[in-house]
Every structure is written in structure tokens, then in C-alpha cells.
Amino acid sequence: MALYLSIHPDNPQARLIKQAVDIIRDGGVIAYPTESCYALGCHLGDKDALERIRRIRQVDDKHHFTLVCRDLSELATYARVDNRQYRYLKSAMPGPYTVILQATREVPRRVMQAKRSTIGLRVPEHKVVRALLDELGEPLLSSTLLLPGEDFAPTDGWEISQQLEHQLDAVIDGGACGTCVTTVIDLTESDPVLVRQGAGDVAVFGL
Predict the structure, then answer these.
(1) How far, in Å, CA of 169 to CA of 24, rounded?
(2) Residue 113 burial by CB count (10 A; 0-12/13-18/19+): exposed, middle or buried?
(3) Hey, what CATH topology would domain 3-205 get?
(4) 10 Å Cβ neighbour count for 151?
(5) Tell me: the pLDDT tens digits for 57-72?
(6) Between the CA of residue 101 and those of 77, 86, 202, what are the distances in Å?
(7) SS3 per-residue string spanning 43-95
(8) What is the pLDDT of residues 99-124, one digit of tens each?
(9) What H or E segment, with its residue span, contains residue 18?
């Protein structure tokens, strides 16, 4: 049974944030709100939690997981970022964007996209996520909460709790989110490549 945590979207309660982070550190899988839509998250180093997210999403090792980072400095620990890529990142983040970059050795191989050794990364602006990341002190391994056969992510924390209560360890209800996923941009090529149009304006990447 998933623990249901109602957390204020603008003034996250520190006690509840710590409770959620303790669950993550103990190998739990959580659902949490972002500025685009709800997402699933777990500890970067936990193989079992990663496999649980794969089962919920019904995805294989070709699926791009995302490292949700506190800032660009932390992001650069887990991805190779040149000056050109950094300029794009600085323009777009924090915000509803996921970028694909070459992973560094800090990223476990099981988390990377298998053939390309790439990883998705983002820096969110939602206050609940930022509070989680500050308390955790490292990136959150994440995937959009898009269930098999569905075109849109669920928008309500209580609905998620009812639907996935036996598959998750905690649901953070931070108020209603949108249904629009992040915009995904591949920055591994010489020019940015739009992989998925979502909530973010692609003009910041010159597209």
C-alpha cells in the first residue's frame, strides 16, 4: 500500500519531504509532481527499484530514463557537456525539458540507453521536486508516469494513489499537474534534434 503524502506545491513541508526521501533511500518507488506532469522516481543506484519502474511502464532497456538534477553543475557530473551544449542548457533550464547527452562513468550502465550510452537529464522548476532533490543530495532517477496504453499521464495524486497503490511505496500529491510530457531534445548531434514535442518551447534550442 503506497503512503499518500499531500505536500503543498508552493511551500513543501520539510517533514513530509524527508519522509519521501527516506523511502527513496530505502529502495522505494514514488510518484511525484513536476511542472509538466506526474513522474515515477527512485534512487539512482537501486537496481530493483529501476526494474519496478520498468514493469510499471512496461518498457525495455531501449527506454531513456531521466536523471532529475538540482542544477547544471550536478547535471555536468553525469553527462558530458561541451560549451555549445551548455549554452542550450543554460537557456532552457530549469524548465519542462529533458535533454539527451552522453553519460559519464558516474551513471550506472543499466540506467543508460543500451546501444548509445546516453542518458536523459533535466533540471525542474517545480518546488516540490526541488525540495526532494535538496533533501536527497543527488539526482533522482525518473520516468514519466505514462501507463501502458495511455496517451496522457494522470493529473491527480489521489487518482494515482488509487490506481497504483500496490505498485508504489509513496505518492506525493502536490496538486493537479498537466498531462503534457516534457519536450525531449537530443543534444548528442551537431545540431539539436527534437525527439518529442511536449510542454517546453523548442525555440530555446533554435528549432
Answers:
(1) 9
(2) middle
(3) DHBP synthase (3.90.870)
(4) 6
(5) 998 877 888 999 999 9
(6) 12, 11, 17
(7) ECCCHHHHHHHHHHHCCCCCCCCEEECCCHHHHHHHECCCHHHHHHHHHHCCC
(8) 999 999 999 988 988 788 999 999 99
(9) helix 14-25
